[in-house]
Amino acid sequence: MSAIVWLNGRLLDIADAHIAPNDRGFLLSDGLFETIRVANGQTPHLARHLARLGEGCAILRLPAPDRTLLTQAISDLLHVTNLSDGSLRLTVTRGTGPRGLVPPATPHPTVLIQATASTMSVPAPVRLGLSRYRRDGASQLARVKSLACLPSVMSRMEAAAAGLDDALLLGTTGAVAEASAANILFLREGRLQTPLIADGALPGTSRARLLDGSFCMEGRLLPQDLKTVTGAWLVNALSLTAISSIDGHDLPLDAELDRRLRAFLFPA
Question: Left if phi > 0, otherwise alpha if psi is -120 to 50, otherwise beta: which for 85?
Answer without folding.
Answer: beta
